[in-house]
Design goal:
The complex is a heterodimer. By secondary structure, chain A is mainly α. Chain A contains 14 helices and two strands. Chain A has helices at residues 2-28, 34-44, 51-60, 67-79, 93-128, 133-147, 150-165, 184-221, 224-232, 236-248, 250-274, 279-288, 292-320, 322-325; strands at 85-86, 91-92. Chain A has a two-stranded antiparallel sheet. In chain A, helix 5 packs antiparallel against helix 6 and helix 8 crosses helix 10. Chain A is globular and about 85 Å long. Chain B is of the alpha/beta class. Chain B is built from 13 helices and twelve strands. In chain B, helix 4 packs across helix 5 and helix 5 packs across helix 7. Classes of the chains: A mainly alpha, B alpha/beta. The interface between A and B is medium-sized, with 22 and 32 residues.
């Protein structure tokens, strides 16, 4: 087990290195850089900028160096904990990332929990009571949930909240807490606001999980080991949970890592619609303005989160399923 | 009928049992008027080809028939030694006697040892669970008893093996675990649903000997389902022959295997390769049965020697004369 963990951790290094090259290349693909897009903006505002100033700016951020060198400057600084400077926001990238990554994580992780808390009981119910009215009702709900894009769901919720209840559902905080330092009251305020993005981001995942769980469980329900356990005298409720459900949820545990990217990109759209202080809106702006340091760092962090998520789900799977643990 | 005279010796009396399966093409009658007794402390074998209703009968006794199947008629009277007799078919789903029955009074060994155990729990856990379902003992005590039973079915190195998972065991070992699980609560009846079919021949013999020895030690009744007449000859006291959801012939193992009365039973015996005369084409059931009508459900008639057959009245008279 220990050597497995070590080899997996070592394996993450080349994975992330390759991802960093791809991220860097993709961001550099469009013509121009952050300085030229800034110049465009300044000139549009009628500000005159001297050639010297531009050259200075470029050399300050190593933008005048060859691409390969630029990559190594960026990657090297990233490794030492300096993610560079966002010209767009005029702030160090570190500040911007730490500010927002936490919110993104809390929304995606709570959305993941929401997905499971909703999908597990409903999926089990739907499978055990296959073809009953309850099953049909849940199936219909799940299909609606699957077919509705998260951003649309966000718009609908915000509209209902505003027109019917007169509350503004955007953002993660009430205006009075927006810039306040952290306190218990601010945390409470966040909890009041976070459930909506959590539900919206988690909805389609919950619908998907529920459907797959139902199908998996239906496959397991009449397996010989379930009949054996029933013949042994295990009570019906315990029987379902301990035997077929335990097997049917394994694929989901291995899927947690794969669900993260979907949740994060879902969160990005929802974040823009609802004006959340998360990674999503920041990433879009930085990409539009070719703010290399910011965009690259954000993408790297998202990639790292996904890689870690996959590792965690693999470890959890080995933990719950002895067949994998013993291989 | 000799019901009343025999009832004291029977642990199970099945009467007029009928099971229907609702399929897309209509109702399938899986069992029609099935009735036989399971004598106490003896081994009763049910033989028949695939689809003859052997397993469905066993599942009825445990009330394990799942939709689309349904028990539509009949009674199964259970006469345990240590409590009042009760009828199984009419038990409500929530009746505590039903949970008690499964695994407590009657338990079952299944055909597929490779899939009959959950892969995610240790062998010890799954055997001990059977005890915990039926008796109020501590986990530790249940584990100790499970280990004892596992040792009794021939699994050594208990310390290590009890913590192992089913997939680390071979097929024969797994079947031993399933047998231990079935016997750990000392049931009155052990139902074996083709327990050796999925095993290779040497292991088959070991498992058969094990079941037989344990039956002799524990003095329980065994209902042994098989399509292998060789196994029947080895293990059974009484034989029930089934065909298309009906019972065709019931008798002692000697009666049924040596002097079968029903043409179908004769066909079944003639089709055993080992017993057939050499140099001749092997008989099939169809070639022996010929034009004789075996599909009409004639009622069971008891012959002078105590055996029961399902035959038309004229044939019964003939058989009685033989």
């Amino acid at each position: 087990m220990r050597s497995y963990l070590a080899s997996r951790l070592l394996g993450m290094i080349p994975t992330l290195a390759i991802i960093s090259v791809i991220v860097f290349t993709v961001i550099q693909l469009p013509e121009g850089d952050i300085v030229s897009s800034m110049l465009d903006r300044l000139q549009a505002q009628g500000v005159d900028v001297t050639q010297e100033y531009v050259e200075n700016l470029r050399s300050q951020y190593n933008l005048d160096k060859p691409m390969v060198l630029q990559y190594f400057y960026w990657a090297g600084n990233f490794l030492t904990g300096d993610m560079g400077y966002s010209i767009l926001f005029n702030r160090p990238v570190n500040e911007l990332v730490w500010e927002r990554l936490g919110y993104t994580l809390s929304i995606t992780i709570s959305a993941l929990l929401f997905t499971w808390i909703v999908a597990l009981p409903i999926g089990i119910y739907s499978a055990v009571r296959q073809y009953t009215i309850g099953d049909y009702l849940m199936t219909t709900l799940a299909l609606v949930g699957l077919a509705t894009p998260p951003f649309l769901l966000a718009l609908i919720f915000m509209h209902i909240g505003f027109t019917w209840f007169g509350i503004s559902t955007g953002g993660l905080f009430s205006p009075e807490f927006e810039d306040a330092p952290w306190s218990i009251a601010k945390f409470g305020d966040m909890l009041v606001h976070i459930w909506l993005p959590m539900v919206i981001v988690g909805a389609s995942g919950a619908a998907f999980t529920m459907r797959i769980l139902r199908a998996n469980l239906l496959d397991e329900l009449n397996k010989p080991y379930v009949v054996t356990a029933r013949a042994k005298g295990v009570s019906p409720a315990k029987l379902v949970i301990k035997y077929p459900v335990r097997i049917a949820i394994n694929p989901f545990i291995s899927n947690i890592g794969l669900m993260l990217p979907a949740l994060i990109s879902g969160e990005a759209l929802v974040g823009m619609v609802m004006g959340l202080p998360t990674i999503g809106p920041l990433l879009l702006q930085s990409l539009l303005n070719q703010d290399m340091f910011l965009a690259g760092s954000l993408l790297m962090w998202l990639a790292a989160l996904v890689v870690i998520g996959i590792l965690i789900s693999d470890l959890m799977l080995a933990w719950v399923d002895p067949r994998i643990r013993f291989e | 009928m000799t019901d009343d005279a025999q009832s004291d010796d029977n642990v199970l009396e099945i009467r007029d049992l009928a099971v229907d399966f609702k399929t897309d093409t209509g109702l399938t009658h899986a069992l029609v008027n099935v009735g036989f007794d399971v004598p106490r402390g003896k081994v009763t074998a049910i033989v028949g080809e695939s689809g003859s209703g052997k397993s469905v009968t066993a599942n009825c006794i445990m009330r394990l028939v799942q939709p689309p199947g349904r028990i539509v008629a009949g009674t199964i009277n259970f006469m345990p030694t240590d409590m009042a007799p009760f009828e199984i078919v009419s038990l409500r789903k929530k009746d505590p006697r039903l949970q008690e029955l499964r695994g407590g009074h009657i338990s079952m060994v299944f055909q597929e040892p490779m899939t009959a155990l959950s892969p995610v729990y240790t062998v010890g856990n799954q055997v001990a669970e059977a005890i915990l379902c039926h008796r109020k003992v501590t986990r530790k005590e249940a584990m100790r008893e499970a280990a004892e039973m596992l040792e009794r079915v021939g699994i050594g190195e208990m310390e290590r093996r009890i913590q192992m998972y089913p997939f680390e065991f071979s097929g024969g070992m797994r079947q031993r675990v399933v047998i231990a699980m079935a016997l750990v609560c000392h049931p009155e009846i052990l139902i074996c649903d083709e327990p050796t079919t999925a095993l290779d021949v040497t292991i088959q013999a070991e498992i058969l000997t094990l079941i037989k020895d344990l039956q002799r030690d524990l003095k329980n009744s065994v209902l042994f389902i098989t399509h292998d007449l060789g196994v029947v000859a080895q293990i059974a006291d009484q034989v029930v022959v089934m065909y298309q959801g009906r019972v065709l012939e019931i008798g002692t193992v000697r009666q049924v295997l040596k002097e079968p009365v029903h043409p179908y039973t004769r066909g079944l015996l003639a089709a055993i390769p080992g017993l057939a005369p050499k140099g001749e084409p092997l008989a099939t059931i169809a070639s022996v049965v010929g034009d004789t009508d075996i599909t009409t459900p004639y009622p069971m008639t008891t012959l002078g020697d105590g055996r029961q057959v399902s035959l038309p009245p004229d044939k019964v008279a003939l058989a009685a004369a033989e």
